[in-house]
Amino acid sequence: MDGNALLSIGELARRTGLSVKTIRYYSDRGIVAPAARTPAGYRRYGADAVARLGLVRTLRELGLGLDTIRKVADRKLSLPDVAAAHAEALEAQIRVLRLRQALLAAVAERRLTPEETDLMHQLARLTDDERRRLVADFLHAVFDGLALDGVARTLTPELPGDPDAEQTRAWAEWAALAQDPGFRAGLRRTLREVAAEQPRGGVPRRGFAAAVRELVAPALAAGLDPASPDADPVVAAVTAEHAHPDGLLARLRSLNDPRRDRYVQLLAVINGWPAPESPAPALDWAAEAVRVRTP
Description:
Layout: E1 7-8, H1 9-16, H2 20-28, E2 36-37, E3 43-45, H3 48-61, H4 66-73, H5 79-110, H6 114-124, H7 128-143, H8 149-154, H9 165-178, H10 181-197, H11 208-222, H12 232-241, H13 248-255, H14 258-271, H15 280-291
Antiparallel strand pairs: 1-3, 2-3
Helix pairs in contact: 3-4, 5-6, 5-9, 6-9, 7-10, 9-14, 11-12, 11-15, 13-15
């Protein structure tokens, strides 16, 4: 075909895959102007209209508005600058959609009440500064006055700048848990016990829960009955790890708090850590072993 030949709107539609109605709309908006008109008033387009409409179609599929597209096509706006601004806007939209998806999944999975759903939504929408203040307030409430800086670092959530849906969802649940007065008080009691067991000025001891898990692991793996006499050496070793044997059973039960277990699981998701091993089976076994031996 002669490069100087003019195209009817029907021919232009066949070449571009756009409908006649769409091309006419773009033409009316001044995005692709006709090169001429026939005596009867029919529009005729130059060959450059094919390439121009191809660009328009691509930019529309990328979500750009028609006014912006016209300016880009007329070279009144730099396409890279427009693309950068649009990419930033899309990223914001993606974060909002990710948040909605995460919250809806949490509502469905945990069967949240309307009040709980509203709270999680508010927590997930906090700004970076608001999140930092919430974390600082929680850490102050449970660690204030305790020389447990290392433990505090292991219990601090650090949400990345671009969290995925699972991290967003975990953050909202973590924040709701961290604001629970009952959970804070229980964790504070546990941390006071941990601090009291640490030698002054010496090498920090491993945590009691970690010691129980390590001591009980072989018994669990072997399927040993906690009431069996064969479990006596394990119970003796667990007792030796505890500073106050008279309160051993109560300590084991207080440590086996499902909320604390959930806290650690959420923390791992938020911080991108490997999934932690739950201490619950070891604590359950040890508590039962101590119970059957308690007069």
